[in-house]
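Listing S7. Sequence submitted for prediction.
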Amino acid sequence: MKRPILLHPDPRLKKVATPVDDLSDELRALADDMLETMYDAPGIGLAAPQVGVGQRLIVLDCVKEEGAAPQPTIMFNPEVLASSDDRSTYEEGCLSIPEHFADVERPAEVTVRWIDRDGREVTRDMDGLWATCVQHEVDHLDGRLFIDYLTPLKRQLITRKMQKLKRERARGTD
């Protein structure tokens, strides 16, 4: 089931998500819904706070090559254990901040640990787009958005444009 995605500014996007302490069927269904929502958007990552759920759950699939098999990845309680000194810059966007993009510099490689949908602990080294995406989504769990890495002026400009978009959608003039 597709879920509505919260748009910035929304106070729920700035809250720190709580850890998942028990993998229930309800949480697995939420993860499946989030994957469906992400693919439909379309996007490569989505965090539970973006669909109004304050728990530490993210989904990603950074496979973008035409014809390549998708790699839907569900992460409960993801945490970045280590990050490289090497940095990389990607133009990031966000499903909660549609049509706005900016270059963000992050560690080029990370080691991430999480619980998968079957309750198994997984640890994986990630680089490239996967590393950027997982850091972006973990930021969501900590109440941070990619625009928080921008200058105050750029952040305010995007926030004002998003407020206008939300007003237009509320009035049905989208």
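Caption to Listing S7: primary sequence and predicted structure tokens for the chain studied. Residues 152-171 form the longest helix (20 residues). The mean pLDDT is 96.
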